[in-house]
Amino acid sequence: MVDWSYLDNESGDELWLAFHGYGQEAEIMLHFTQTLRPNARILSFDLPLHGETVINKKRSISASDVGELLVFAMQETGAKKCSLVGFSLGGKMVLKMVEMAPVKIDRFLLIAPDGLKVNPLYWFVTNTIIGQLLFEFVIDYPQPFLGTSRLLAKLGLMDKKVDQFVTAQLGTRAKREKVLKTWITFKNITPSIDQVPKCIWRYKIRPILVFGKRDRVIHPKLAKKLSGENCKTAEVIILDTGHNLTTKEIALNLKNQLNFD
Q: Which of 129, 161, 185 is the last residue of a domain?
């Protein structure tokens, strides 16, 4: 069972469910979505291990947890359909909801979303005992891993921003432990990227994908996973920025570019 914490602006002429990224909390996506859709009712959720959402007696959330959250939101608001917005890790929640209950989804906005591709390291750590043991070794003895990352960046074999991201996320023991816990928590809700486009087409869902041109965490080329080579199945917007895509300025930019009618 998951005890979801969320913020609700309590009024609006359409319902949006919002999901933040790793290391954030519900308030960020509430403000972002209010700027983007000022006349909407918004329920912005804390993801597990973030904010005040609590996972009771379990290490991982399941597809049924995601489905139950969608049912709760619809019952709480009395809405027949809703729209979704998710940034980074929150994009995984959005994609899973689209896969599970497409008939309830009007449109969805993915911002540099996780879930479009399964990282081999992520799969290895979350699905094998050896992978978890190796990551736990990195938690205790991080210097060989972090030192290798710095060396690769200095040699030009890895982007310096990737090294900076790795150092920022794994620089302390607490941060390393949180990464492992979060990876394990979300491992069972990886969406089927073969199934999601079929749901979009069959139920006439309107998807919008937003990426940062200079993002080294979630690369813009992943848009093709949903939009196709010619962007026929989704609207794709590439902004001249990095991974920080949940600012008020970005929301205002998107508001001016997007047609929600």
A: 185
Asked whether residue 116 carries a pLDDT value surpassing 70, the answer given is: yes
Residue 26 and residue 46 in contact, taking contact as beta carbons nearer than 8 Å: yes
CB atoms within 10 A of CB 111: 28
Report CA-CA distances (Å) from 38 to 6, 11, 61. 18, 10, 31
| CB contact at 8 A, 78 and 11 | no
Q: What is the pTM of this model?
A: 0.92
Terminal CA-to-CA distance of the chain, rounded, Å? Answer: 37
Tokens 């026929």 found at? 232
Closest of 121, 107, 115 to residue 91, by C-alpha: 115
Closest CA to 59 of 129, 2, 123: 2
Examine the fold and report which residue of 146, 164, 185 is the final residue of a domain before the chain moves on: 185
- Name the pLDDT band for 216 (thresholds 50, 70, 90): confident
Sheet holding 82-87, edge to edge: 6-8, 41-45, 15-19, 82-87, 105-111, 206-212, 235-239
CATH number at residue 78: 3.40.50.1820
Overall number of domains in the chain: 2
The residues, ordered by sequence, that sit 6+ positions from 249 with a Cβ below 8 Å of its Cβ are: none
